[in-house]
Amino acid sequence: MSHSTAGRVGRMSPAIAAAVGAVSLLAACGGTTQPAGGGSSTAGSSSGSAASAAGGKTIVFSPLALKIPAMKGLSEGVKAYGEGKGFTVDIQDPNLDPQKQIQQLTAVIESGKASGVWMIAVQPTALKSVVQLAIDKKVPMVVNGVPADYGFDGLQPGITFDTIDYTAQGKAIGEQLAKCINEKLSGKAKVLFVDATTGTAGKKEIEEGAMAALTAGAPGAEVVTHVEVTDRAATQTKIGNALQGNPDVTAVQGMNDEGALAALGAFAAAGKELPCVTEAGGNDEVLKAVQDGKIYASVALQFQDDMAQSFDTLVGLIADPTQTGQQLTVPQKIYTKDS
């Protein structure tokens, strides 16, 4: 899943969090899906056949697994959004099994019952055959990731890819921290840099993007120590320990919701002010802290907007499946006290 996914997943409704390789998604509205834990696909059912016969307006949505609450919620959101656009949305449940996802999608693509497919691939490298089949059968798809994840050299006819731009996310939090340091600290600060957890998707890109933007925007800022974010309590302890050796820290690149909130807690426990902290996440607690002036800026991925752009892009491809697809990115928004 994506960087600080847990914090973002719980707060959206209805939403998308496109995931894998890192990405994910959220709570929902209306519609019926396969019960969580169920294994069979609803695509290809009588409702799907009827929809196809009525005019080919059946979209098949294949998330990671319906036993994941966020995925079940996303499925319901996609179903409700699609029905509002006049489409029947059939939900599959590969249950985190790439082979099952291949079998289910191959069946609906070969049968001609799917007008279009939206897939969050369990294992993109294993799903290339499904994407190629869709190209051959002229069944458009929206899939998570980038072409290289599926073994393609570039964009393909009828296939749109959707991913998170972690470099842009990192750049935004670095720029905002530099802006805070220039506004509140006359351009000079000792900075504590919270690193993403090892193995987190986008770790390298977001960290390098943040560091480069901070250095460019506030040359007088100096990163004096790093801590790796884990859960909030453990991260607060790590930051508290780091402050003992670096008592002059006045700015924190908080990385995500857990890191930023842990920094606030650690500074408060130490009786210190924290003029500048930025992060990427944006759960409800963080956004309240932004409004209260405790966090300078939060960069939040707009998953509901991404759900809409993904679905609408798929509808456009259905009209002409021979057109080359696009590379979409999940939109992001910068929240500050004044915006």
Automatic annotation (TrEMBL):
Domain Periplasmic binding protein: 59-317
Keywords: Signal
SUPFAM superfamilies xref list: Periplasmic binding protein-like I
Keyword Chaperone: no
One of the record's GO molecular function terms: carbohydrate binding
Family to which the UniProt record says this protein belongs: Belongs to the bacterial solute-binding protein 2 family.
Designated name of the protein: Periplasmic binding protein domain-containing protein
Provenance organism: Nostocoides australiense Ben110
